[in-house]
């Protein structure tokens, strides 16, 4: 069956790697995640956002995730699978997921005041722990896709708050803000420098903040959201096949590799998968305009996604061979 994150995070922190948290909302994404994680023998966190639940139906997604455990075994290797609510924003949503078979939830109270965040997170933790479910909280706000110029420094996680927060809430892991953000446009060209090949190089993550956090709560599981790298090959392929993605910049893999070796034990990736699928679908549509069987474009999208996830597990997160 599904497992919570407790043991997985302990092993990941001790082992100096991070467990992939991949978002899904359809069949092909789930197939790609499970195939990639079985083949690389990696534990995996299946993430469902509230938007994904609305889009795909909560009952269907829950049963797909349960089926995925069986599917993984059929593929020939048993891997730990977590079903996790991504960015839960209310107690009611978290409770609904806990009541319906999720093994882990995130309560994202980071947009509230510090004390309100604590109160909300603690309430979720009490209910979740009574049901064997682990909880991820968040301190600090990730920059939005659009508000990149607004007070970017004031929203980083404050190391002075983390110990108090984890003690008072009882959370099992903590998402932090050290310069990542959601989506495919994490930095504006103005925030980047250009290398010799004209490639935009974003400002580095605030590793000094991460180190300070690790000093305050040694060995405590840390989560990195907004960790897509926005591979240039997908952006180029999308744009070469009729798409229009200007100035898409992500987090360089080298920095994620470094983060994975620290107490960061869960790395969230959604946008890269979206780019991989879109690139593959656009390619089929341009190269085979007569094709109208969804399997003929969703199949290649699934295969590209699987390749991407295998690469992440093996080359970036270090989660391969850890299951
Ligand atoms: O953090 C956001 C995830 O990428 C999920 O995005 O709300 O569009 O499903 P979504
Ligand atoms: P990306 O948009 O960088 O893939 O981040 C995903 C995420 O943090 C989901 O919670
Ligand atoms: Na780690
Ligand atoms: Zn996120």
TrEMBL record:
Cofactor(s) of this protein: Zn(2+)
Binding of Zn(2+) 1, residues: 87, 182, 225
Keywords (A to Z) from UniProt: Lyase, Metal-binding, Zinc
Listed GO MF terms: fructose-bisphosphate aldolase activity; zinc ion binding
Sites where the protein binds Zn(2+) 2: 108, 138
Domain of life: Bacteria
Coiled coil: none
Cofactor binding notes: Binds 2 Zn(2+) ions per subunit. One is catalytic and the other provides a structural contribution.
GO biological process entries: fructose 1,6-bisphosphate metabolic process; glycolytic process
Name of a matching Pfam family: F_bP_aldolase
SUPFAM superfamilies: Aldolase
Name used for this protein in its record: Fructose-bisphosphate aldolase class II
Source organism of the structure: Mangrovibacterium diazotrophicum
Lineage, broadest ranks: Bacteria, Pseudomonadati, Bacteroidota, Bacteroidia, Marinilabiliales
